[in-house]
Specification:
The chain is of the alpha+beta class. It has one domain (36-226). It has helices at 2-19, 79-83, 125-128, 248-269, and strands spanning 22-24, 45-46, 61-64, 67-68, 71-77, 89-102, 107-118, 132-141, 143-156, 162-170, 179-182, 184-185, 194-197, 202-207, 217-218, 220-226. Strand 13 and strand 14 (202-207) form a beta hairpin.
Length: 270
Amino acid sequence: MKKLFIVAVALVALAGMAQAADFTVDPNPAAGPSGPSSDLRAPNITQNTDPATIVAANSVSCNAGGLHTDNWYLRRFFLNTDHGINIQYTVTSVDLGIETAAGATGTQPMTLSLYGLASGDALNFANLGTSQIGTANFSLADASEVVQNFVVGGAILDPMADDLVVEVFTPEGQTDGNTFFIGSNDAGQSQPSFLAAPDCGVTEPTDTAAIGFGNMHIVMTVNGDEAAQPTPTQDPSAGGAPIPTMNRWGMLAMVGMLLGVAVLVIIRRK
């Protein structure tokens, strides 16, 4: 009986260890690209030296046996200082790298969110919670080593005051048997990639290099438009002040007023 008890305890301990989550690469990497892939647009805003290549077994997630816990992946774009944007910037979609997406039913949930984070604010969940400008939920189909386009919208009204943060969230997939590893490469990046996963002890967005994965450069391109606010007709000379213009109703009103003044002058003279 004592031996049986010891064996039972050992089995329980092993089972507990099997469920413990840790940061690992995909234990079952795909043989090559598969699944639907979008044609790449000309990069609008990217921090990747190579925004098109996905390297197998280069990304990590907080997972157990490849089945992930809650994971957040983020990039912070300094629109004004890094990209020279100083007027309203409207995001229309995001091209996102996917290393592995394998759902037990062929799909799994994913959420893409956009934030306008004040330039002086730290990148943490408390600050992001008050600065969301757009979000979209997706049913992500199985795919591997591809870059896909996801439509999500939001506007940074003043890029000189606010930075753009793009967040990818994959909810716990262990119950449903889901595997997700975001696409990345080690070709270089102009700003850090960030990851958060409370079940692995990373409770706030953290530079992947700071947790030992410096080669994990998340592949992401933001597609959007710069749009100045409507203004009066501008003087063609550089730096000219706005020139007031008048529509036809204004012209008619002015003509009517001048006619009225003329009639009064004629009456007084008589």
